[in-house]
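Researcher: Sequence of DUF7869 domain-containing protein follows. Predict its structure.
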Amino acid sequence: MAVLDPLTELESAAEPDDALPNTQMTGLQTELESEADEDLHCETGPWTPGIFITELESDADEDACHIPRKRGKKRRHVTFQLESSCSDQEQKKRGRCCSTDCLARVTRADAAAARIAFKEKSLGDQRTWLMEYFRTHSSRSENESLQFSYNIGLEQVCATAWHQVVGIVRSRFYYWQKQFRDGLLYPLPANCLRKGHKINKTLNAKTELNAFARSYGDRMPDRESVNLPHGFTKREVYRRIRQDNAEVCSETHFKRIWRKEEQHITIPKVNRFSKCDVCTELKMKLGKTNDKDVRRQLIAQHQKHVEKQSSERQKYYKHIRKAKSQPEKYMSVIIDGMDQHCTSIPQLHPTPKALSYNDQLHTHITGALVHGRGQHAYIDFNEYPHDSNLTINFLLNILVRYADSLPPVLYLQLDNTSRENKNRHLFSFLSLLLELNIFKKIKVGFLMVGHTHEDIDQFFSRIATHLKKRSTPSFPKLLQAIPAAFHKAHCPTTAERILHLFDVRKWLLPHQHSMCYHSKPHIFKFALHQGKATLQTKDWSTTPHWRDNTGINHILSSHPDGQPTLVTISSRSGS
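Model: Prediction complete. Tokens:
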């Protein structure tokens, strides 16, 4: 009986399946192969591997059909040779898959079921199923190398027998196995190599760049952009990303996608907002020296400084994640002020020449983000002094709003200024909250001066962007415009006018101890000890130990009676 030679030429011509069209049949089966195919579905006993392997090779995977070839290459032709004489020994040798001949142990019924189950899937489903099979049938050996096991029915077979029975071209099988070894868990789309489609390394680069900007950059309050520290260069950013993730694109392509698709991430030549003293000093020293060793030391100092501010920011993000994932245990609040001329009334677009800055009613917006719960804007006409009373009243408003769901722990993030936040008046109020059993623990964080632009500034930038495109002729229109800027937000947004303030400072002043040594620390922890609120501090979140360096153990000597009076508009005393 004449036997077809294996189509080794077809296997060698097969390419990875990503760029191959989905076809139904290979069109390469001869009459003899058709008969073998019928026998496959009719018989269930042991079978001769030689004829079946010939059939498997002729029933080539759809990925190998109509392979697109580059222009100028000579088309290959698949030829069939019929041998008039072939001994049984040669036929058996041709069908052997390995030294143990595991293919001979597979029944026709199991082989047919495996082949049909795979062929019924689309090309995309085949890839997904293949990667999932590698994941569930692989394990790590003692030397950390991947070991695979393959089964047809209940029989364990070698890799060659498995991909031949299932109907996967050899080159395709080993291509996806290599992808799995390299760390790919899910196959890329079949059209991933077409023009305009981003491959995995490009997507990794974009993801890492945005993560880098979140860790090191400052969000701008007047526009939706992120400014990286001045000392960075695009090459330095790429080098850092490449160190953390080797699976990124080339530096040239990285700079190209940054320029075309990530324009909101910038490295400004001039910082228009508050500047960090350390960054400014190092920049001045760099501009005055050309010595390579000195410059290298200054750059290393700057990188260390940037790493420190990044770690402080990451600690703040950790508090946000805890508050969002466990709102019954944690509450995270950030409060800051917005300083923008676009909130003055009226704002007209286009702006008439007759409307001058002095003719407008100037407003001031203070924002408060309660992470995972809501975001709120408080507006005043600068009729009240912007001191610790302002911050305390905003915090009181938030506590009343969420009084039914207050958790035991409060994380409070504030601007690093002594006039409004870092003073004994606010700390006394926080101590009172603990001693009244409203909270069990309060942690207050202050970011580095010059590196304080956070998600609250992104909140302000959305407001500024929205107001720059629309006219706000009156104050009621301004109150309506602020929530309208967040129509796609996942949490409620409110805007309200400050009608009155409680004079909590004056109310608590007779019951306060004096404080000292609290200007340099950036982390403050309030906790209860024997019914009294105690205060501990750390310079930074990465500092290993808490210390009592405020000069006192208890801020409050006693509790005030009654309730605080209202701040009058004429009262403009400083903090």
